[in-house]
Amino acid sequence: MTARSEWPAWVLIGIFATAIATNAFDYSVLVPQHQLRYDMHRAIVDGTAPSPQRFRILVPWLIDPIIRAVSSLTDPEQAFRRVYFAFHFAALTALLAGVYACSRLWFTRDRALIGTLIVGSTLHLVLRMGEYWDFAPIPDRTWFAPWSLLEPVFVAAGLLLLSKRWIAMLAILTIAGALNSEASILLPLVALAVPGQERRDGVALLALWFVVSAILRLGVGGFAWPSASFDANLAHLPSTAINLALFLGPAALLIATGFRRAPLFAQRAFLAAAPLLIAVAVFGYWWDVRLLTPLYPLAAPLILSAMFEPDI
Amino acid sequence: MSSQGAAGSSARFRASRIGPFALACILITASLIPALDYGFGPGEETMLARRDVHRAILNHTARTPDRYRWLAAWVVEVPTRLVSRVTPYERAYDRVSLVFYLAAIVGMLWSLFAFLRVWFGDEPALVAALVAACTIRITMRQHDYAPNSYLEPTFVALVLLAILHRRHLWLGVLIAIATFNRETAIFLVMLYLMTSDWSREALGRTVIYGAIWAAVYAVVRLVSGDAERYWTIALVFRTNMAQPQLAAANITMLLGVFWLLAALGWTRAPAFIRKSAWIVPVYLITVAVWGIWWEVRLLMPLYPVLFALALSYLYQPLIEPPVAAT
Fold first, then answer.
1. Does A256 touch chain B (CB under 8 A)?
2. Residue A2 pairs with which residues in a beta bridge?
3. Residue A66 in contact with residue A83, Cβ under 8 Å?
4. In chain A, is it the N or the C terminus that has fewer CB atoms within a 10 Å radius of its CB?
């Protein structure tokens, strides 16, 4: 087998879009409680949402002007649904593109595509909102979580910038990520962990992340420390076990076998997610595996390392 | 491609073999969530309808055409009876069905991979299988009971492999088993004819395979008897006209850009793939007349051919497989 030639960009984008189209449609259209999403969007834009959703402003603030513009053509709720459908489609495509770009750092196009599509085949799990199974639906407040679709995109972009040592760009990305969600702390953590970087750059990025997060919380107001959710988690251990097992399925075994063969950069980047996992364990709902989506671009190169020799 | 080039391709092909453990991990990963989704997703009402149809097939009281689709019902029934010794029958049926769906989807992805790797090697073949896994959920809606649909693409891929490797006996066995699954197994006979050289020998075998299909189908019809016909062609047409936009959306989501890539790959595809692609218009016309358009599970049997065409656009196929069909 040989490739015909380099593929034009539309082929790759088309493959990613094909892989996520059903998920984007279901996540946008087959939602029993649209009103919950609409209300949360409005509350974030108005600054009245509960903490911590109140501080995840990036997507709602960016999209709200578009919704307002489309509202001049149709009713606001329909405009909301249509604009968010476009966003979900674009964000999920970008998610797979991000996983692909990270994998491509060490693997050929076809191998990177395999890693990407493995992630694509499991995406439905993190998007399902309890409308099907009675496996402890995700709490109402998290029905609206557009930031979760961007978290892996930020992580992937951060890895790419780090690999090129474009620290100034990474600083801008860190600011945007901090406006998106708390999971963006992964960006400075990865910068501190991966080899070949100046440690002071990582420290500066971490400080920048804390400053932006603090300004955001002071500026918007209403910050409340999250409470631990051990009781709820202990009550849903079967659901947790099922969802964690399904998150990357048996491909998670390949992470274990691929870790040693993976490039040092990929190993360290994966380990940098440990503090995020601890935070999820303490403050998150364990069965809500959507919280693990930032791991996608970190896990794919490890899975591929179990199957193929990475190009270091 | 020169012979030297082909040899080079073969060397690369062998070098990039994906190990069975990794392949199993990937295919099971890609199948688990769709299987769970299909097994438990539709809700209690659909689950009840499924159990009813399942029982009706076994009792020969189901409506046409379900009454004549024995295979999946019997494959599920035997272990269900065993499991029902320790749990209620309904629960046993649901659980065994889930295992069946998982096995069927894994089998479908594996057979697709096995067929495509002959032409393109492991990596492109796995890419195509994973694309099918990513989009399979669109095939799982707008119907109550269709486990047979998740066996059909496997039969097509295995039949194509049997044709390629000249396993004539296996081909006959596959056609017989596939006829117990769905009457559309007649397309497997057509596939043989279309990919053949139309020699007297090939025509003779086509007659034999056609006779196998006819014999099995006649037995099924005789045993199960005449059934109530709910879906007339007129009703099918009226139903299809009711929501053409849903059909368009589902068809688009089924293969996405791969529809375009398949069309572009026609001129570049190996002769065998091009010959097998003649089944596409014949099959599409059949589905257009007798099928509900938005039930895109009906298009799944085209997976091996359409993905082979699409990959032919993206990759230089191996010059020809080790053996050619006759």
1. no
2. B316
3. yes
4. C
Can you give the pTM of this predicted structure?
Answer: 0.93
A210 in B contact zone (CB under 8 Å): no
CA–CA separation, B177 and A69 (whole Å): 58
Measured between alpha carbons, how far apart are the two ends of chain B, in Å? Answer: 23
Q: Is residue B122 within 8 Å of B270, Cβ to Cβ?
A: no
A251 chain-B contacts, CB cut-off 8 A: 25-26, 29
Which residues of chain A carry a pLDDT beneath 50?
1, 131-133
Angle ∠(A231,A236,A238) on CA atoms, nearest 5: 145
ipTM rounded to 2 decimals: 0.94
Model confidence pLDDT, tens digit, residues B259-269: 999 999 999 99
Provide the 3-class DSSP secondary structure of residue A20.
helix
Give kind and range of the element (H or E) at residue A3.
strand A2-3
Contact, B22 vs A307, CB < 8 A? yes
CB pairs under 8 A between A and B: 138
For residue A304, what is the nearest residue in chain B, using CA coordinates?
A: B22
A33 and chain B in contact, CB less than 8 A: no
**Is the confidence at residue B2, as pLDDT, over 90?**
no
For residue B144, which of B230, B235, B237, B75 has the smallest C-alpha distance? B230
| Backbone φ, ψ for residue B167 (5° rounding) | -90, 80
